[in-house]
Write a structure and sequence with these properties.
The complex is a heterodimer of chains A (188) and B (199). By secondary structure, chain A is an all-alpha fold. The relative contact order of chain A is 0.09. Chain B is elongated, with a radius of gyration of 20 Å. The N terminus of chain B is likely disordered. Chain B is 72% helix and 0% strand. Chain B has two domains: 88 residues, Rna Polymerase Sigma Factor, Chain: A, CATH 1.10.1740; 93 residues, Winged helix-like DNA-binding domain superfamily/Winged helix DNA-binding domain (Arc Repressor Mutant, subunit A, Orthogonal Bundle), CATH 1.10.10. The longest helix of chain B has 31 residues. Classes of the chains: A mainly alpha (188), B mainly alpha (199). Chains A and B meet through helix 1 and helix 2 of A and helix 1, helix 2, helix 5, helix 6 and helix 9 of B.
Chain lengths: 188, 199
């Protein structure tokens, strides 16, 4: 490379490198960066606070599973040997909800609960006696579906469980109110 | 990554009582850093990535890293160099994930064909796409220390001593790397010129 050619290439290189460094961002870069940064702390906080949500979800799922397990076990306690007939169980239920000592009439809610309990018991009566406690039995189709749903949508499952729990409490409160009202009617 | 570029002279963690005040101060320092140096960060990213969209993404990422360590920003001796180092690292990391550039024989030939006219009026002419790609390709073929020094030298806001800070070397080393890099580029350009013009 002769001296003249080197100068020529030097000039070109200077100019080309200079031009490479002249990159101009789109207008408003600073504003975009600041807007992005302003949005970040919330995300950071959310990312940092994921664990309380995870813990509460885990607790909710565990309580749902426990509730399901108890629900599945309950009939065995009620009719362990499968000998109680529907009428007998309904009778027991109505006796429990009905006239133990004060001769109170059975309320509508109590009657419907008794009916629903007797339905459960009739279905459960058909199952064989289980010697192991807690009963080791395969999950029913509905339970499997529920399990799959909980696995796929733990957050939604937790919300549903909470809703169900709340509704249960509301029904119990209604039932208690109805009983109180019928008691006061009786007294009058 | 970003931890490595944080200065040791950083301010200590805030007490609970003064955390709100410190948070405001840090936010203000961050805003000042964005307003003063966003363009520099962008240009450093662009010098590596050669693409406006990628350079902007890298700029955003660099400042998100700064946000993570904003408590330390107040204690940084030279925020400009500190930010330049973060921008450099972000851009280098992003560049590793990109596909390599290539230029066909025809494109090289066309670029070399443009060279005489560009040399005639280097100041006025803008760099053609193929010329820019050729230069990028020639720079990519340089040894890494030379390439890094040359790439950062294209960012006009960075003086040689700041390039040395970013690269973690001495200013004299940067100057010698720049000289060698330019020598290699000129030799390669001269060879290419001879190859495509002689027939």
């Amino acid at each position: 490379m002769n001296h003249r050619n080197e100068d020529r290439l030097d000039r070109w290189l200077d100019s080309a490198l200079n031009e490479q460094g002249k990159a101009e961002p789109r207008a408003g870069l600073e504003a975009r960066v600041l807007a992005n940064l302003a949005a970040m702390p919330t995300e950071h906080r959310a990312a940092r606070n994921w664990w309380p949500l995870a813990v509460s979800t885990a607790i909710a799922v565990a309580s749902l599973a426990l509730w399901l397990a108890q629900d599945g076990r309950r009939p065995e306690h009620r009719a362990p040997h499968g000998t109680a007939g529907a009428a007998q169980v309904a009778g027991q239920a109505s006796a429990a909800a009905g006239v133990p000592d004060g001769g109170l009439p059975i309320t509508k809610v109590a009657a419907s609960r008794a009916r629903s309990r007797s339905r459960h018991t009739v279905q459960d009566r058909r199952q064989p006696q289980l010697k192991q406690f807690p009963a080791a039995r395969p999950l029913s189709e509905q339970e499997q579906l529920l399990k799959a749903y909980v696995n796929h949508f733990p957050n939604e499952a937790a919300v549903i469980a909470r809703e169900q729990e709340q509704r249960k409490k509301e029904i119990e409160a209604l039932y208690a109110d109805a009983t109180r009202e019928s008691d006061s009617d009786q007294e009058r | 990554m970003a931890e490595a570029v944080i200065s040791n002279g950083a301010i200590p963690l805030a007490d609970a009582d003064t955390s709100a005040t410190n948070a405001r101060t840090n936010d203000h320092a961050l805003e000042v850093a964005v307003r003063e140096h966003a363009r520099l960060v962008y240009r450093i990213a662009y010098s590596v990535l050669r693409n406006h969209h990628d350079a902007e993404d890298a700029t955003q990422e660099a400042f998100v890293r700064v946000l993570r360590y904003r408590r330390k920003l107040e204690g940084v001796q030279d925020p400009k160099t500190w930010l330049a180092r973060i921008a450099w690292r972000v851009a280098i990391e992003r560049n590793k994930r990109r596909p390599e550039i290539s230029l066909s024989e025809t494109e090289v030939s066309h670029a070399i064909g443009e060279l005489p006219s560009q040399l005639a009026s280097a100041e006025e002419k803008t760099l053609g796409r193929e010329m820019a790609l050729l230069l990028e390709l020639l720079m990519a073929a340089l040894p890494e220390p030379l390439r890094n020094a040359l790439t950062l030298s294209t960012v006009e806001e960075l003086a040689p001593h700041e390039i040395a800070e970013v690269l973690g070397t001495s200013e004299s080393s940067v100057r010698s790397r720049l000289f060698r890099a330019r020598q290699i580029l000129k030799e390669k350009l001269a060879k290419l010129e001879g190859k495509y013009e002689s027939p």
